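Our consortium's second objective concerns turning raw sequence data into structural hypotheses that experimental partners can test. To show how far this objective has progressed, the report includes one record in full. It was chosen at random from the queue rather than selected for favorable results. The single chain below, 419 residues long, was entered without modification.
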Amino acid sequence: MKRKIISVLLAGVLCAFSAVPAGAAGEAAAPAAQEEQAGPAEPAVREMGLRAVASAVQENNPTVQALRENAESIEESGALAGASGGSGSVSPIDILNAQIQGLEQAMQGLDTESDLYKTYAVQKSLLEAQVEELEGSLSSSMAQGEMALLQLGDAAYQVRRQADNIEGQLAQTAQTLLITIQNLKYNRGQLERQLASLDRTIDVAEVQLSIGTISQYQMDLYRNQRDNLARTIDTLQTQCESLGSSIALLCGYDADTVVMPSTLAPVYDSQLREMSYEDDLELAKQNSFSIWQKRSELRQAQNAYDEDISGTDYAVQSAKDALAAEQQAVESSFGTIFQGVADSRAALDAARTAEQQAELDFRTSQVQYSRGMISELAYRQAQDTLENAKDAVEIAQLNLTSAYNQYEWAKQGVMTTAA
């Protein structure tokens, strides 16, 4: 059930990615004449790095905040019940039911597809599950108070663990989107150079068309190619703004805010040398939320085991098998992530080698162009090849940053495993 809860929470927050265009919610209504004169308001742009984005998600994301507030509320309920000796007119179950009613009232009038509604719905399901567990596991009035307090403490701890896990997943998602934007910017730069090169080709083609060495059909092909390339560049810009708006939502900012990447620090060789597969895998398994879930389910099955009750032994064995399978899945996923860092490092080395060759080729083209051995068009093409090779190095470095960032999250137990 907890895995479904995480999926719902992530879907609730991330569904806003394509639904809210940058600046759409922040535009104020204005008279038509004034809109024509001033135009729509530009979104506020925040330039942030990977750490800044993660901190913003931790501090401002409404889903994470709601879960933490829920955990605090449950702890306060436990303290209140403990102060009254676990008995009296107000029981822990009554307190949880009151919280459920409060959530139901807060959900009234909200859009059922909004992330806030889905967050409240998940919290309500958690509380209802705790009430059901309390009512089903308590058999005597004396044991009820003590068991209820333990259940409340366990519920608060579970919610905190879920909040930590969701916070990590959302922070990693925001960082991945930030890296994606930077990649799109590099791609846009390459396309703009292609567009400039095509413009030079079209200039030459116009002369050729005027003297009859190429057909009008060939000229139209060049122009259509240029139009398509220009549209692709515009699309990349729109994608960057849309992703920036999505990051802003994850960070808890207003809908008229767009987050763009600042200078992203590269991964240094010293950081790569500190990677240790065995030690870091052990750390990842200790921090894994999914493994913790399976261990919790195993404890519940063991607590419910009774040799006189049919099926309880099977439940314990099934929980053990599920835990072993999840540990294996975590190990497999971690191994893939570890290898991904090594592959990205190799790709960066290859890109640097290609850049060095492009630099040598360009120097040769400079000499040839200065001596009139090649045309200006060929010289510009060699120059574009060098710039593309430089961009390829930047992209490879960015991919290494992404792979290493994923590795760092994996050590904290935040990773995707096979279902």
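The partners drew two points from this record. The mean pLDDT is 82. DSSP finds 14 helices and two strands in the chain. Both points have been shared with the crystallography group to help prioritize constructs.
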